[in-house]
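job 3f2a | input accepted
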Amino acid sequence: MTAKLGASVMTAAEAAARVSELAPTFLEGLAPREVAAVLEAARLRRLWAGAVIAQEGESADEVFLLLGGRAQHFTTTREGDKIVVDSVLPGEISGGRALVQKPMGYLVSTEAVANSLALVWERSAILLLARRYPRLLENALLIASDYLAHYRDLHVAVSHETASERVERVLEKATREIGQKVPGGIELMIRNEELANQANVTVFTVSRLLSEWQRKGLLVKGRGRIVMK
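job 3f2a | predicted structure (229 res):
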């Protein structure tokens, strides 16, 4: 099992080491030999930035475990507007509906935001593994429960928090999850549209708030980039 990411080559052993480092929830509770068997059934796939790797409504035939880079879930409205739903970070899975015995379609689309690398299981393989190792299904249910908790909190925030508080919440979450230390602060590679979607506000509101916070010296904004002070 080999694949290239940037100028480097990741071997099966390196992929296993990366999985151990990330400690994904999807593989929690499995013995080392069981983890090895699950990884052996996967393929390494390079994902180019901007590539759609799962299409909303199409048959959920693959499960992805991100090893590096970043992806995002999105949906498309009837009018053709793209709504970003959530980020997919290293150690997280996408395509969980492939684990369901009844064939289903992907609930949302998934695209790579940056050049990424993922382990990919075909539906037939992951169903076999789930029967052999029921803990995989339990972990998938916990992940789904976490998503429900996230949207519960979002619904409460929409009802009881101001637009400013919601954008602050999203920035704090992004800082924890995708922030990179740079001279002068913590860099977030995130667009205004993503912030607006996740905070349930307009792009105009995000732009106004970021400009206000920049004047106060709390951050520096650029195209698709924010540096938190």
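job 3f2a | The helical segments are 12-22, 32-40, 123-132, 135-160, 163-178, 192-199, 203-215.
job 3f2a | closed
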